[in-house]
Amino acid sequence: MWATKPEGYTFKAGQYCTLGVNGIERAYSIVSAPFEETLELFIESVPPPDGNLTPLLHRLKTGDRVTIRPRAKGIFTFDPNYPVQVFVATVTGVVPYISIPRQYLYDNAQGHRFYLLFGASYTDELAYDDEFRRIAAAFPNLVTFVPTVSRPKERRNSHWRGETGRVNTIVEKYVADWSLAPEDTLIYACGNPSMIEDVKDRMNPRGFDVLEERFWKDD
Asked: How many domains does the chain have?
């Protein structure tokens, strides 16, 4: 969904905003980059009883109003001190990794390399994959994109010919293939909490720092 950015509203790439409808509020990471004129959000619908706000958001029409708290928050943001950035995501956890390279390219920044490992059960859950493929094709020395599906044998994935397995299980393989070193690499893990814990268990003992942002299966 897209929302008008309130006058004077600012945020850092990777931060989240707090939206509300009928007094129900939840925090959502922002897809759009800070330079963009609107707030773009990727919100997975969670039906009741677990979901209270997302059904309301998905019923909104153009022109409907939502509330937004005046300040964006969050520390899951781009850290320029690491030349190499490895993004690990499951489904909606990809959101901060869209905002960061959009802003980086807009700023014409240099000196960093981004790798995105993006996992989902099914290919149709790989949101924004077309955008990442375009960026990786246009800027091959800046962005590398590796999507993976964890249920490759199911009919819904019958056309898939790419990487397979849960995304947390392939991080070690690709970090080794890319010859990445702990001293100049930061691993970001965003999405399912169990994925994040597994990435930390695998990579912290190898000396890698892991920055985390947990997305729970609710609204």
From this structure: 2
